[in-house]
Amino acid sequence: MSVSGASRDPMRQKVQEMEQAAERAQDPQERERLMEKARELREQLQRRGNAGGDDLGPM
After folding, report:
1. Distance between CA 52 and CA 49 in Å, rounded?
2. 41 — phi, psi (to 5°)?
3. Given this model, what pLDDT does residue 22 score?
4. What are the pLDDT digits (tens) for 6-38?
5. How many angstroms separate the CA atoms of 40 and 15, rounded?
């Protein structure tokens, strides 16, 4: 994700932060919870037509 893209949309920034936190999480349940939240936010972005395909990309 580009920095400029993240700064334009707080939801995109939140998705990136959650994915990064999930990568760092030691607890598998916490990792899964964070990834699920990131997926939900990503879906909300797509539904509102603001996903910007290139910026978020597939998981």
Report:
1. 8
2. -65, -40
3. 95
4. 556 888 899 999 999 999 999 999 999 999 999
5. 9
Cβ(2)–Cβ(55) below 8 Å: yes
- Containing H/E element for 35? helix 28-47
Asked whether the whole model's pTM tops 0.90, one would answer no
Q: Please determine, for residue 51, whether its predicted confidence score (pLDDT) is greater than 50.
A: no
Give the phi and the psi of residue 54 in degrees, each rounded to 5. -65, -35
CA distance 4 to 25: 26
Between the CA of residue 29 and those of 14, 32, 36, 38, 46, what are the distances in Å?
A: 19, 5, 11, 14, 26
How many angstroms separate the CA atoms of 29 and 10, rounded?
25
